[in-house]
Amino acid sequence: MKLSIIVPAFCEEKHIGQILAQIDAVDLRGLGLDKEIVVCDDGSPDRTSVIVTEFTPAESVVKLAHHPTNRGKGAAIRTALQVATGDIAIIQDADLEYDVADYPTLLEPIVNGRADVVFGSRFLRRSWPTGMQVSNFLANRILTLSANLLFGVRITDEATCFKVFRTDILRGFDLQCERFEFCPEVVGKLGRAKIPVHEVPIDYEARDVASGKKIRWTDGVEALATLIKIRLRG
């Protein structure tokens, strides 16, 4: 089996080399997985693409897709998904908030046939994840509660980056997302399709706006609207 690590990236020249090295170093042979890293540079005006092109992996295949202009995280994921060839896909932000050491825990339920979709929850180990701002905490709690009520799912972290899918399931959703509405779109479509989400605890250390965090309060409003819109379609 093969794992595709999908990395949407915008203006991440400070971090992209480090995250590529961390992903490349993760040993998944115990799970019987080969891995490819699929980066979509979402119109970065900095050296993000150059660093990806110059990166020399030891254990992975690295592929680079590119948007000529910035479109958003959701669009970058959709473009990378077109290039991905893995049986399993995991979303990995280009920053350093999420620990790649959690990959084996995230992947084991799918590899061993116990789940088709796995989310890494930041709230299973800690009630308040390390460094998370009050606004982000409240938005996540509202979105998670809304998803559970609207779709009858039972998750603790709607907005986690670490979402893992059998790739055919993710492709089957005909994603329309452009920005940060990727998370509510897949959660809503999983709920409508009655596909259960298996959660595992992960480590997390938030970064702030000064360090490059891009999500804003307006994205929370858009996420809630996306959940409601998908529910009304049912």
Folded structure, characterized:
With 234 residues, the protein is α/β, with parallel strands linked by helices. The chain has helices at residues 16-25, 48-54, 73-83, 103-111, 134-151, 167-171, 182-193, 217-233, and strands spanning 2-9, 34-42, 61-67, 88-91, 117-121, 163-166, 198-201. It has a single domain, classed as Spore Coat Polysaccharide Biosynthesis Protein SpsA, Chain A. The protein has eight helices and seven strands. A seven-stranded mixed sheet has the order 3-2-1-4-6-5-7. The model has no long low-confidence stretch (mean pLDDT 94).
Blueprint (SSEs and pairs):
Layout: E1 2-9, H1 16-25, E2 34-42, H2 48-54, E3 61-67, H3 73-83, E4 88-91, H4 103-111, E5 117-121, H5 134-151, E6 163-166, H6 167-171, H7 182-193, E7 198-201, H8 217-233
Parallel strand pairs: 1-2, 1-4, 2-3, 5-7
Antiparallel strand pairs: 4-6, 5-6
Helix pairs in contact: 5-7, 5-8, 7-8
